């Protein structure tokens, strides 16, 4: 009897301790997760510099030809799009490196090409040197941001995952804004040196607050290091919460180990990818991401970042382009904070759909204004309406279509194939980005000028919202294992068989 009463008391103590841990976690902000996410998200500073740099570089080179010489139309196009050529190679590199060397090692490696690239750009004496520098920064951009996204998806709790992963968008927006602010008033070489210095932030911050992902450590059999990492991220003095998380991750791994073909796992990377692609939990999210990234790039949201000054000169004639460009950069930066908040409270689906619809409507109205000007209406009201519509287009894109597709692959793919497939999917996205940016002028010519471009991007924006409504599942506040379970039995979201996905209402 005494032994039974002692066991009952132990159980009560264990329950009380567990409840105390849960109450502590509810009340206390997890600074460990936050600092780790901010540290790896600082890589998006140089991503923002890389995306915005061509927008200020090309107009300067077209005016001041004494530095490099007069640029041809082809050279301008290559300078703008070259980072998108190298980005797929960075994505394929992480497919090899993420699982083999770890999330943090891969992230830190990406910083070296960044330093070299910006140094080459700052010291360039020929357009080809600028292009080589842009290629290196593009490789660093894709390697750093994608390894950071995988890392954040694995260390964050389901409730915080969306808002933590959107910190990268804040950093990226700040990088673009800083590029616009400095580039409109400083020489482009000075801007390149500022970007070079900015690349030191990830080096400094990841030295203090980024232990390796406990999920990766467990999958590699490094249990002692995984426990240590979990204790850091749980940010709790109670070991019971850490042990429960560790046991849960170990159980998931052991179940998956029973399903893994050991012979296949020892094969080369291409055969492993081919084998995994036969699983519904892998090929379904892969197909969705392939189509979603094509739609995202042809909404024009990234093309605008590369050609912001030139596009605004056509759409908003008569308005000071310097101030208009700064206004766009500032709005995007402020809205990145809004995105962090809404991703914490609302689902991915409604944000993407609302974003696409607003983008489509605003571009259509901007196209109508542009059409009116071609018919001789030079009213300042028409010009301002067109500018405000473009501002609304960028604003809507910043909290939805521009941000969320980059988060989804790290959430949707199972842990055992995340390192293998996030890279190729992102490589595909960057390849499509290259096509969209590099052939922008050609597409504009085919569609009959800026009016055709505006209405084409408008149509694709609406089509993207429809695609998300039909196929993309809600991942907000879901565990990664729950998202994986959804794809086992469901394809079309509207016809889902199981209620494993909680519909989030605005």
UniProtKB/TrEMBL annotation:
Where found? Answer: Membrane
Stretches that traverse the bilayer: 34-58, 78-98, 105-125, 164-185, 191-210, 281-303, 323-344, 351-374, 380-408, 420-440, 446-472
Q: Which GO terms describe its cellular component?
A: membrane
Please report the stretch or stretches of sequence annotated as the Major facilitator superfamily (MFS) profile domain: 36-476
**Cross-referenced Pfam families, in alphabetical order?**
Sugar_tr
A GO MF term: transmembrane transporter activity
Name the record gives this protein? Facilitated trehalose transporter Tret1-2
Record flagged with keyword Membrane: yes
Q: Which UniProt keywords apply?
A: Membrane, Transmembrane, Transmembrane helix
Q: Which InterPro entries match?
A: MFS_dom (IPR020846), MFS_sugar_transport-like (IPR005828), MFS_trans_sf (IPR036259), MFS_Trehalose_Transporter (IPR050549), Sugar/inositol_transpt (IPR003663)
Q: Which domain of life is it from?
A: Eukaryota
Q: How does it sit in the membrane?
A: Multi-pass membrane protein
């Amino acid at each position: 009897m005494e032994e039974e009463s002692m066991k009952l008391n132990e159980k009560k103590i264990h329950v009380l301790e567990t409840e105390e841990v849960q109450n502590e976690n509810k009340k206390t902000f997890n600074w460990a997760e936050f600092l780790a996410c901010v540290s790896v998200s600082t890589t998006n500073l140089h991503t923002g510099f890389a995306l915005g740099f061509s927008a200020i570089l090309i107009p300067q080179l077209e005016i001041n030809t004494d530095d490099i010489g007069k640029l041809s139309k082809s050279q301008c196009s290559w300078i703008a799009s070259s980072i998108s050529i190298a980005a797929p190679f960075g994505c394929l590199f992480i497919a090899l490196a993420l699982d083999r060397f770890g999330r943090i090692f891969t992230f830190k490696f990406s910083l070296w090409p960044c330093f070299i690239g910006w140094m080459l750009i700052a010291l360039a004496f020929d357009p080809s040197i600028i292009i080589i520098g842009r290629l290196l920064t593009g490789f660093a951009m894709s390697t750093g941001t994608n390894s950071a996204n995988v890392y954040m998806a694995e260390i964050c709790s389901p409730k915080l995952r969306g808002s933590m992963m959107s910190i990268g968008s804040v950093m990226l927006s700040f990088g673009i804004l800083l590029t616009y602010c400095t580039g409109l008033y400083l020489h482009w070489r000075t801007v390149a040196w500022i970007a070079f210095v900015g690349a030191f932030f990830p080096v400094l911050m990841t030295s203090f607050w980024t232990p390796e992902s406990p999920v990766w450590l467990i999958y590699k059999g490094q249990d002692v290091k995984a426990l240590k990492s979990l204790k850091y991220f749980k940010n709790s003095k109670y070991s019971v919460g850490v042990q429960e998380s560790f046991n849960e991750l170990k159980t998931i791994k052991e179940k998956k180990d029973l399903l893994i073909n050991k012979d296949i796992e020892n094969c080369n990377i291409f055969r492993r990818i081919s084998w995994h692609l036969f699983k519904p939990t892998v090929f379904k999210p892969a197909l969705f991401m392939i189509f979603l990234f094509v739609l995202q790039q042809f909404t024009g949201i990234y093309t605008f970042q590369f050609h912001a000054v030139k596009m605004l000169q056509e759409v908003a004639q008569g308005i000071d382009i310097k101030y208009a460009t700064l206004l766009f950069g500032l709005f995007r930066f402020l809205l990145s904070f809004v995105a962090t908040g809404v991703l914490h409270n609302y689902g991915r689906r409604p944000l993407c759909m609302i974003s696409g619809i607003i983008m489509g409507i605003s571009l259509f109205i901007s196209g109508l204004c542009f059409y009116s000007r071609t018919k001789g209406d030079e009213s300042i009201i028409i010009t301002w309406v067109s500018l405000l519509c473009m501002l609304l287009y960028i604003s809507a894109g910043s909290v939805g279509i521009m941000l969320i597709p980059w988060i989804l692959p790290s959430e949707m793919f199972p842990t055992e194939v995340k390192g293998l497939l996030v890279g190729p999917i992102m490589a595909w996205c960057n390849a499509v980005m290259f096509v969209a940016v590099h052939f922008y002028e050609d597409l504009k010519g085919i569609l009959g000028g800026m009016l055709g471009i505006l209405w084409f991007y408008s149509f694709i924006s609406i089509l993207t919202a429809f695609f998300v409504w039909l196929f993309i599942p809600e991942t907000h506040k879901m565990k990664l294992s729950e998202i994986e379970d959804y794809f086992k039995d469901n394809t079309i979201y509207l016809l889902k068989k199981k209620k494993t996905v909680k519909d989030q209402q605005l």
